[in-house]
Amino acid sequence: MSNLEVHLVGVDSLQALEEAAADVLRGSPQALFVGSSGWFEDNYQLPIAVASKANLPALYVRREYADAGGCLAYGIPYREMYHTAAGYIDRVLKGANPGDLPVQNPVRTELVINRKTCRDLGLAVPLSLITTADDVIE
After folding, report:
1. C-alpha separations of 76 from 6, 12, 61, 83, 126 in Å
2. Exposed/middle/buried for residue 112 (C-beta within 10 Å: 0-12, 13-18, 19+)
3. Predicted pLDDT at 2
4. CA–CA gap between residue 111 and residue 113 (Å, rounded)
5. How many CB atoms lie within 10 A of CB 88?
6. pLDDT for res 124
7. Which residues is 74 bridged to in the sheet?
8. N- to C-terminal Cα distance for the chain?
9. Residue 14: predicted pLDDT
């Protein structure tokens, strides 16, 4: 891992994504990691398109990316977090003091593998990873 180089790029618009993608791809990366961003909530297809065009494997933080054609997704199941948040809202609306409610961390993480995308990229996904995945998209 001593040869690992990480380049952080902030993106908040289509123009910034295009500029960042051009800059990152000039460096001949071997893979991409797409973290969480409010801007990507509505534009999650765009980093998938960048990775696909560059023929790069990418790891994303939300299952929606893998569902939409991204290679791998590993992160907190947001649907469960929204359910938990709804419980907090219910308690506050019923009179609970928000300051008295306990902070809850996510209970689990989720691994989703889009095996079709991995095959298209020429990646052999180890059986040990497939058997531990929460979902495998064929």
Report:
1. 22, 22, 7, 13, 22
2. buried
3. 59
4. 7
5. 14
6. 92
7. 111
8. 30
9. 84
What DSSP string describes 93-126?
Answer: HTT--GGGSPP---S--EEEEEHHHHHHTT----
Ranges of residues in the chain with a pLDDT under 70 are 1-2
Domain residue spans of the chain: 14-76+108-137
- Which CATH architecture fits 14-76+108-137? 3-Layer(aba) Sandwich (3.40)
The residue length of the chain stands at 138
DSSP 4-59: ---------SHHHHHHHHHHHHHT--S-EEE---HHHHHHTHHHHHHHHHTT--EE
The position carrying tokens 């079709």 is: 116
Q: How many other β-carbons are positioned within 10 Å of the β-carbon of residue 53?
A: 10
Contacts of 17 (CB under 8 A, 6+ apart): 11, 43, 46, 47, 50
